[in-house]
Amino acid sequence: MEKITRFTSEEREDLAAYLDGELDEKRAAEIELKLTRSEYARREVEILSRTWDMLGLLPQPNVSGEFSRKTMAIARQAEEPQFYDKSKDAIRWGRRVACLSGWGMALCLAASMGYQITNRLIPDKSRMLVEELPIIENLDNYREIGDVEFLRQLRSSRVFQKEASNVPPR
Question: Which of 18, 84, 113, 134 has the highest CB neighbour number within 10 Å of its CB?
Fold first, then answer.
């Protein structure tokens, strides 16, 4: 049984040049060797040759010199490196970074404003405790006094007059 041998993709690319006689001797010899060994390869070349012949039977369009110049200009542009596309990518990335930075700054500003507003509007219970600390420390003593009448009697007795000389009498 014969081993099936087919053309590789590189060899298929060279078939048109082989049929036109434009292929170098080494590559042409490799293709001819494969043609002698494989019926499938011969069929492939025969189909390509017939297709090439049929294309030759089609009427040739008449084109102006302007068409040829434009086509060649487009081909030259395709061969040149595309610096313009890279700059568009850079601009696109720059816009994305600027947009994300703007959103990030807006989010930080909103968070900061929210913190400041809630810090001023909602009373801090721990701050009130610190401000009232002297009263809280002496709360047990104040409970023993009972009412304000006892404090008035104590003031009027002037027992603590020397210690409270800077406090004006009422």
Answer: 18
* The pLDDT value given to residue 98: 94
Q: pTM score, two decimals?
A: 0.36
End-to-end C-alpha distance for the chain, whole angstroms: 130
**Residue ranges of domains in the chain:** 9-59, 83-122, 123-170
The token duo for 104 is: 């990030």
The span from the CA of 85 to the CA of 81, in Å, is: 9
Helices 9-20, 25-37: inter-axial angle, 10-degree rounding: 110
In contact, 44 and 6? CB cutoff 8 Å: yes
> In the chain, where does DSSP find H-type helix?
9-20, 25-37, 39-57, 65-79, 83-121, 125-131, 133-137, 139-145, 148-156
CA 20 from centre of chain: 51
